[in-house]
Design goal:
The complex is a heterodimer.
Chain A lengths: L6 H16 L2 H11 L5 H10 L17 H13 L6 H15 L2 H13 L4 E4 L15 E3 L2 E10 L6 E6 L6 E6 L5 E6 L8 E10 L1 E3 L5 H37 L1 E2 L2 E2 L4 H29 L5 H26 L11 H14 L3 H14 L4
Parallel strand pairs in A: 1-4
Antiparallel strand pairs in A: 2-3, 3-7, 4-5, 5-8, 6-7, 9-10
Helix pairs in contact in A: 1-4, 4-7, 5-6, 5-7, 7-8, 7-9, 7-10, 8-9, 9-10, 9-11
Chain B lengths: L6 H17 L16 H15 L17 H11 L10 H14 L2 H13 L4 E4 L15 E5 L2 E12 L6 E7 L10 E7 L5 E6 L8 E12 L10 H15 L8 H10 L1 E2 L2 E2 L4 H29 L11 H18 L12 H16 L6 H12 L22
Parallel strand pairs in B: 1-4
Antiparallel strand pairs in B: 2-3, 3-7, 4-5, 6-7, 8-9
Classes of the chains: A alpha+beta, B alpha+beta.
Chain lengths: 370, 404
């Protein structure tokens, strides 16, 4: 029985934490948000130098050839330090899709350049102000030419490539697009958290390459989300823990009515609830990490369980962190809002809480063992 | 990460399993523990004796007291395997989980030889006498009196919520020997023969209709000083050791869980549509599934630490808060699923299990530390937050406001 990370993985995690702490990742996130820069390019370049973009890429393409577990521990630290970089878009989604579904030729062309940072990828799915589904994708591929408009695409402003969920005569498919084409128009969209930019991307008869099968695209996409949900969960746990840590230290420092506010049960019980939520989320995410690393048949339910628990934990911890800070928590100056905003970004980026709950229960219905 | 036993653990599990298969019936999905009430105590004692003879009763205890000196991980493996069998539960947990460790730590060698093996064997059953009518969450507010009389102590007062007192042979007891001292300094700890003259046990009827715990009255009960555990005035320190063990003993709330709710929703008709298709029902099931698996996976993390010979973190402290509340909500869900017929008690095991959950859960949210006390413990011991300022600090016990 060993539901824990190895010593090497824990070492990688502590190195990641030291690095992000030293780089002042939280202040960088604030700066990106204030200046609407969408990304901290300098921090991203350092992350590329550390080799994190190639953690999961096999050695034959120049990557580190490590497993998903290594990615999980790095994700937790990126979440804790609100890193303003396109890691989730480019690594959890784009790179994983290329590794899993692309042809050998595409892998050879793309993977080494993902490692070097020459390519940054993202996933473009949403088209309107509701959840994308198998039946409402209007973007169309005809004869490898892609036409349509995607919105709320994370990190597209910096991304050199996108994977586009598209419709076609044979069904939903996933298409690889190079943004250097003149036919691609990318525009910044205003959001409630500018620490990671979101964009509209318009494709006009844009050349594209099929990734995977031309009719099972939706299944591939769902599987990609199942995988990415585990990594998002770890980012959410990191953010939850940081929020609880902030709230705890403030509750010890701040005096009211002649005593530390952390001595009031109204505050203590709030923070205990946060601890409970984080513990459940963490344990479920550990199990999902195992399911991901072994490609278990349980992955779909396990990842939805981790995703729902972690989304709930981060939402709870980030909002109650503000509440614990009182008026200060509502100011731009304190960091509380950075976590509050990031919690929403991470909770909608690969689909909202109600939709993941639905996914969890339909997963249970499909598995005959429960 | 993996879920495999080591070679030694696998061997140990096999040994447990083989013995259980020879001596007990595996649980079937339809039968929850099914023993008739009349024979239950006798059946439980027989099972305990059988385990004792084979070394399983208190397997982590040293051999001289009837154990096999098993490691913490082996203890968990045994518990996992035993839980797959239909065996009687609920009689010995408090004695073995709370009284045993205290006797082990504070009794003399002669007393340990005399009492521990019979406790493990189940021939003598033990209870815990801490709470009082005016001392619940604030256990240290207890008032039962101990007066020294030569080599004896004379006990007067009342205890309450004493599980099993009506069939127990011995009990551990904390009482106040000096009300002029500060609250936590004026207490002393004993063990007592429950058949002593002057002890009167009165069952308490619970909201479930059953009676598993009691009021226990002490009128001039004589306890020899040799039955004192710890020094005079150390009663609180000894009690804390016991309460720490209680938190380990009172864990997961047993009863209807998300699996039962899910399976029920799949077949329960809700106005011409299966309940499972109701959005609110689906959302609740998702939430409970996350909680149930969060606890299960937390347990696996604790086991992982034990398996590596490490001390587990504080994660397990969340178990009772989460599981007792979940049990209450699931009970509620099952009853509501019947709509207006929810008031009825039909002959249906599933419906009864929801009703039992709903009626029993309020007790579980209180027993072994209320939700509120457990949250205090998490916030103080895990998060390091300060204690509440206390109105009783530094006062002699007799001067503390009591509302009486």
């Amino acid at each position: 029985m060993n539901l824990d990370f190895s010593d090497d993985q824990k070492f990688l995690q502590s190195e990641a934490r030291k690095f992000l702490e030293k780089e002042g990742s939280i202040n960088r996130s604030r700066k990106v948000l204030e200046d609407k820069q969408s990304i901290d390019k300098e921090l991203w370049n350092k992350i590329v130098e550390l080799g994190w973009t190639g953690i999961r890429i096999p050695e034959e393409y120049g990557g580190l050839g490590l497993g998903h577990l290594e990615l999980c521990v790095v994700a937790e630290e990126l979440g804790r330090y609100l890193a303003p970089v396109p890691f989730s878009s480019s690594v959890y989604l784009f790179t994983e899709a290329i590794i899993k579904y692309a042809s050998e030729e595409v892998k050879q062309e793309i993977l080494p350049r993902l490692i070097s940072g020459d390519i940054i990828g993202t996933l473009a799915v949403t088209e309107d102000l509701f959840a994308p589904s198998k039946t409402n994708i209007k973007t169309l591929t005809d004869n490898n030419l892609l036409t349509g408009r995607k919105i709320a695409v994370p990190d597209a402003g910096i991304a050199t490539h996108s994977l586009v969920v598209s419709n076609s005569t044979s069904g939903i498919c996933i298409r690889l697009v190079d943004h250097s084409s003149d036919s691609v128009i990318i525009e910044h969209q205003d959001t409630i958290d500018e620490s990671r930019g979101h964009f509209s991307v318009e494709y006009n008869n844009t050349p594209s390459i099929l990734i995977g099968d031309d009719s099972n695209g939706w299944d591939f996409y769902e599987n990609l989300l199942d995988q990415a949900a585990v990594l998002f969960s770890f980012e959410q746990i990191g953010g939850s823990q940081a929020s609880l840590d902030m709230a705890t230290s403030y509750a010890k420092e701040r005096y009211a009515f002649g005593r530390q506010i952390g001595s009031f049960q109204a505050i203590k019980h709030k923070l205990a609830d946060m601890y409970v939520a984080i513990t459940l989320a963490k344990s479920n995410s550990y199990y999902a990490a195992w399911a991901l690393s072994t490609d278990s048949s349980d992955l779909s339910v396990a990842s939805a369980t981790a995703r729902v628990s972690s989304t709930k934990a981060f939402q709870l911890c980030s909002k109650e962190n503000i509440q614990t800070h009182g008026g200060n928590g509502f100011t731009w100056e304190y960091d509380c809002h950075l976590y509050y905003k990031r919690s929403k970004l991470l909770s909608v980026n690969i689909g909202s809480l109600p939709n993941w709950k639905e996914k969890l229960v339909s997963g249970l219905e499909k598995s005959n063992t429960y | 990460m993996d879920f495999n036993d080591t070679t030694e653990q696998a061997q140990f599990r096999k040994t447990c399993r083989e013995w259980l298969e020879q001596n007990a019936e595996p649980k079937s999905s339809s039968s929850r523990e099914s023993f008739s009430d009349i024979d239950f105590l006798e059946v439980a004692k027989q099972w305990q004796k059988k385990k004792y003879d084979a070394g399983w009763a208190m397997l982590h205890w040293p051999k001289e007291y009837g154990g096999i000196a098993a490691s913490p991980i082996e203890r968990i493996i045994w518990a996992e395997e035993e839980s797959k069998f239909n065996v009687p539960r609920g009689i010995f947990e408090i004695g073995l989980g709370m009284c045993g460790p205290v006797m082990m730590e504070y009794a003399t060698d002669e007393q340990k030889e005399r009492f521990l093996p019979s406790m493990a064997e189940g021939t003598e059953i033990w209870c815990q006498l801490f709470s009082e009518p005016s001392a619940g969450s604030d256990v240290a507010g207890l008032r039962s009196k101990a007066t020294q009389d030569g080599d004896n102590w004379i006990i007067n007062g009342q205890k309450v919520w004493t599980s099993g007192a009506h069939f127990c042979d011995y009990g551990i007891l904390v009482v106040r020997h000096d009300p002029n001292l500060e609250k936590h300094k004026g207490m002393t700890f004993f063990f007592v023969d429950m058949k002593s003259p002057g002890i009167e046990v009165k069952p308490i009827k619970q909201i479930t209709g059953g009676s598993s715990f009691n009021e226990v009255y002490f009128t001039d009960v004589v306890i020899p000083d040799s039955q004192r555990l710890g020094a005079i005035g150390d009663g609180w320190k000894v009690a804390i050791t016991t309460l720490m063990n209680e938190r380990l003993a009172v864990g997961d709330a047993n009863g209807a869980d998300v699996k039962e709710a899910f399976n029920w929703a799949k077949k329960q008709d809700d106005s011409g549509e299966y309940l499972i298709n109701n959005r609110a029902a689906r959302e609740s099931i998702a939430d409970w599934y996350c909680e149930a698996n969060g606890l299960k996976n937390t347990k696996l993390r604790t086991m992982s630490a034990l398996s590596k010979g490490e001390t587990p973190g504080p994660e397990a402290s969340i178990t009772k808060i989460v599981s007792a509340n979940k049990l209450q909500d699931i009970g509620n869900f099952g009853i509501d699923s019947l709509d207006m017929a929810g008031m009825l008690k039909p002959e249906n095991n599933e419906i009864q299990s929801f009703q039992n959950a709903w009626l029993g859960a309020p007790g579980l949210r209180i027993a072994g530390g209320t939700d509120e006390i457990l949250k205090n413990i998490i916030s103080e011991r895990v998060l390091g937050l300060p204690q509440d300022p206390r109105a009783d600090k530094g006062l002699p016990f007799k001067d503390i406001p009591s509302g009486n």
